[in-house]
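User: What would this chain look like folded?
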Amino acid sequence: MQISSDCWRAARDADSASKEQWLAGKRAQEQQAAVEWAEKFDMPPLEGPEKVLDWGVRSRHQLMAAAHTVLVVEGAWDEADWAEVEEKARAISRAGWWIDQRGAEGSDLPELLDAAGEDDRGTENPFR
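Assistant: Here's the prediction, encoded as structure tokens.
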């Protein structure tokens, strides 16, 4: 049995729409988890163009979670070691930096934070 071109296009378009809906739902869940995590762990808001801020927040959350898992949960780090990484991460306020690191391994985070440039760091809040 052969499917007509119109039927094939309709099926493809329906698949595409459902995939887009699924992806939008997944992104919304990831965003909510990232926002809650940032509030819980006192992470400062990120800076950059409005259109990339949510992506930066999700990227930061994903990389920090991966790093915590590999370094603390599965690794030999204690919470004091991790607290130092958290402080360094709080200093990186440029959303683009976090997006650029989104493919990095969690174990690389300490080195990446140390290598971050001045343009990636925000102004320190003296009232924190």
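The chain has one domain: 5-120. If you want, I can go into more detail on any region.
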